[in-house]
């Protein structure tokens, strides 16, 4: 019997979730189309993410920035140099493979992030060969994963399709900080398409060349984070995180420790308190997709496995019966790396002015040099002395003069009489800082896959997709019973159509179906995970009531047509399944 992945792929195509793109031309690896049901499911995942990560907090804003970026953006971000994966080519058949993945499949050894030499050593030692033709493999080399394009049709400038959303938030940081009235912390979220020229995408929805990311960059002052995060910890109070730490991985242990968000901070497991906070939010989010708590974990990356910008990274993973642990999100502590790089490359100031609660009095030490007299006295050695004096700060000169009574320049001793020492007091209102950033980044298609895998059930030989009701592509199915006299039949159809239309007009997504037996119609609704099915029957014509059937239990309740909309809305809000 085929496994859940293949059965899901069949269902997905048959019922309009997703399928390989450009099928009529033989299909294109790494690209998928989403059909009418898949589009709705994706949108619901995005909505749930927005509810959990963005709408819940006053410090969050959302932006939309272009897919195409000028080259300089990815020079500044470091992607042009670092966003690569190691590849090997079969010297016999010419097939190209991602070297670390191939080594892992062939030997079980994890060489992610290892040097090209190290990977090659393993290939030779373990005699790893082309899985297709058995040919010998080339030496590994690094391949750039950015898709290149030209901006402008004739001798245009080089551009790249974004492989992540982050740079759109970094280049706009100053503008958005102004919009947010210069307040930190500030979270900037974005949802959008990205493209990565993946080397050999063979895992369906899990490794695409174009996909959708939901990402947020959280800008904060690291010196205030311990204090500031306190206010928001209650939001993730009940969350316990399963964390496989880098320390334990280095000891060869992959068992997670289970800690609360607060413990992960106090025990120093997560280095940045805000990173820990967002991991708590992420835990909550993944559970809201119906993933059991013990089927998700945070897997800390080892230093050589981390992206070039990150000081600490955790992959949030979900367990798949088909693929084992799958990364659904990356949680990275990007520090001030990106803002500093964009400041360097653009010359634009991206500082945040941190205002003190009260102005602070500072004393500046100044040294005034009497150059005229010094030049007369030193003659031809004046230039040498001038250079040395200008090479030292005012504070250094002040300290040397106060302690020694002269300034030493080689064998010259320049006495106190050439200098006037002053202390100047002033009020300072704040300081310029470069905010630090933590980033959670989710891939929508991977979430959609695991959501389907966990929802997929077979009951009495029929598929029932037990999606959390709120996430279901359609909220409700409406069926008239096709029985009784012609008049009754007509009246039931008319009542059912009216109900379907009125529910639609009030914002619910409805499937109306009058084809086939009621059992077949329930089955079709179950297959695409519609949580509630409303049936109009003979009694409906008498007392204006209908039945609501619950997908997972097949139980039914009867409600008045007048209360139907509000009842379903309440069920959806609470994810009710009785
Ligand atoms: N090729 C892809 N196809 C589908 N989703 C992807 C792909 N690459 C990344 N993602 C999703 O985007 C999220 C954020 O991207 P990130 O850069 O952290 O991934 P990554 O560490 O490069 O992924 P991987 O190690 O699997 O290549 C991932 O957690 C994943 O959910």
From TrEMBL:
It is an enzyme of class 6 (ligase). Transmembrane segments: none annotated. The keyword Hydrolase does not apply. Keywords: Aminoacyl-tRNA synthetase, ATP-binding, Cytoplasm, Ligase, Nucleotide-binding, Protein biosynthesis. InterPro entries: aa-tRNA-synt_IIb, aa-tRNA-synth_II, aa-tRNA-synth_II/BPL/LPL, Anticodon-bd, Anticodon-bd_dom_sf, Gly-tRNA_synthase/POLG2, GlyRS-like_core, tRNA-synt_gly. Coiled coil: none annotated. CDD domains: GlyRS-like_core, GlyRS_anticodon. The keyword Protein biosynthesis applies. Its EC number is 6.1.1.14. Gene3D superfamilies: 3.30.40.230, Anticodon-binding domain, Bira Bifunctional Protein, Domain 2. Belongs to the class-II aminoacyl-tRNA synthetase family. NCBIfam families: glyS_dimeric (TIGR00389), PRK04173.1 (NF003211). This is glycine--tRNA ligase. The lineage of its organism: Archaea, Thermoproteota, Thermoprotei, Desulfurococcales, Desulfurococcaceae.
